[in-house]
Amino acid sequence: MSYKNFKVETDADGIALVTWDIPGRSMNVLDETSTNELEAIVKATTADAAVKGVVITSAKEAFCAGADLSMLEGMNQAYAKVFKEQGETAANQMLFDQSRRFSLVLRSIETSGKPWAAAINGLALGGGFEITLCCHYRVAAENPKTRLGLPEVKVGLFPGAGGTQRVPRLVPPQDAMTILLKGDPVTVEKAKALNLIHAVVPAGDLIKAAKDWIKGGGKAVAPWDEKGFKLPGGPVFSKAGMMMFPAGNAIYRRETYDNYPAARAIMSCVYEGLQLPIDAALRVESRYFASVLRSKEAAAMIRSLFLSMQELNKGARRPKDVPPTKVKKIAVIGAGFMGASVGYVSARAGLDVVLIDRDQESADKGKAHAQKVIEEQIKKGRAKPGDAEALLARITPTADYAALKDVDLVIEAVFEDRKVKADTFAKAQQYLKPDVIFASNTSTLPITSLAEGFKDQGKFIGIHFFSPVEKMMLVEIILGKNTGDVALATALDYVRQIGKTPIVVNDSRGFFANRCVGRYVAEGNEMFLEGVPPAMIENCAKMAGMPVGPLSLSDEVALDLGLKIMKATEADLGPNAINPDQKKLMVEMVEKQGRLGRKNSKGFYDYPEKGKGQKSLWPGLSALQPKQLDPDTIDIEELKQRFLVVQAVEAARTVEDHVITDPREADVGSILGFGFAPFTGGTLSYIDFMGTKKFVELCRKLEAKYGSRFTPPKLLEEMAAKGETFYGRFAPKKAAA
Questions:
Q1: Which CATH number is 450's domain given?
Q2: pTM: predicted TM-score of the whole model, two decimal places
Q3: Catalytic residue selected from 136, 198, 369, 464
């Protein structure tokens, strides 16, 4: 029998080699066709007496990247249809049966009576890794790039085809829970040390090693199907087990604040499943999986963190009529922390970089930053000494603007001051090639007004990086009123070259990310001035799902920079554009107390010397509060709501202002750019999943109590009246092929 996604060849020894190779795709993914065909292959090889064993591998560079999550989205749509037509019980049964199907296919491999060996030739993640776990033997090719793991929790799901049951039956419980709850993939060496795979061999010997195991009498029984099988960490109710699960539950609560149904389900699956025989345990896992799949958190996270991010990374917003561009050489003007970091990530991606500053010493310091970062990577085993040499050879530090003459793209990263930037443009323009694109890495200054100092405004664009550039995945591309399509296409192509995720926004002060996150920081300041204890402000923000509290974030950004932005906004837009009480607080902190934030080791927090303990809230803060509230009288749920609503309502305003034209960019941008509660799916998904009508009611309630920053824009009121959603009204265009 022939298959579309697999090739099956049986050799003279009776060993069937099953090679996975989905036509027209760079990677294998678990889709409907692959599941159906794998089921048919298991049945055929099990029934064929001539087949003595099976080896499964891939013809592609990777083994399998995981499940096709659009298939899961389709299952949710089918659930909604059956629910409407046949009721909840029928819909639940349908979803359970569908989500259990792949688990049963994998179990049929395990119980086929024929030895199965997985020959893992490259990356194996999610459902792809679960396929290897149900095989009786796992051998991986030596490859430093290969990663194995179960990252489903990062998109609001968990391994639903046996991962939560097989991993803790192979690996000690602490390691198993780390693999499942963190979702971070491991190298083949680590996987071997953990007992997740049996052997690592040179790539050329991979298939031979798998076949040799079968020929050598490989056993067709999984360890947990053997009589007398013992769990690696002992029974759940043993002394070791009881040390693990209560502590694990406490860690789970501390890390997630119970915002992630999938993480809770993993804890439950492992705890319940390890007390049961494997078949009953797999049934428990499937029940939890069907339940989590129905959650709004899973729907939101799959859409934003997988489907939308994938579409944006593939160029969903790229002008279709501009031919592909490949940036080979860039110049970064301004070799301070931000500029040096942009230079580093560009050189890391293989681009030649000219790093320009006011004098040679400052430019050299920028290159030294790149050296420091790559040396840290080498220490952590994430890079080799040869990588450092090659990377540093691509960076040329100089004070001579004439070095701009042969670059394809210029990124200006000088001080956030109109005059300084205008002087830079004037110096640079005389040396530029006619077709070069010029980008400003401004974080707040409108691009259209900056472009006035540039002779060809069509080639001027904003490329806003987030700090620290090496870690932050988001880049905001800002279109000025006169920015042309070639500039946009070049900026998008460059951002993809350096492995970042781009969002495209129209011009406005603060653009998208800083407008929203500015509201978050300001809300923390408002609470502080109201008399909410600082520790409560920080903890409630984290309980709401934010990665750090607003006071901590203010320190990271730098309080003096916040004050400068406040003063610049007041100068440009007048005194009504800022909150005078917040300005007074910042003046007190920065100018009177000399507390600039993390950079001078004192802000809202006191920072110890490196390696000497943790930061702690500055004891002098309470003296700066006009009053102090009794924490027992404060509504914690309302504090959490305020943090999320104030950002979401600002995101809605950016849509009304035409800064954001595609809801995917608001959602992906808010999660990657400033860590907006990932379980919500992002700022606009937070509104959509709550329902616009309910969200507007909540805004009105908060507006009555706290003021106009919670006032819903007219667009939102109109949408609430019509029962519209952002993804319905502003349906995103599909990604370019």
A1: 3.40.50.720
A2: 0.90
A3: 464
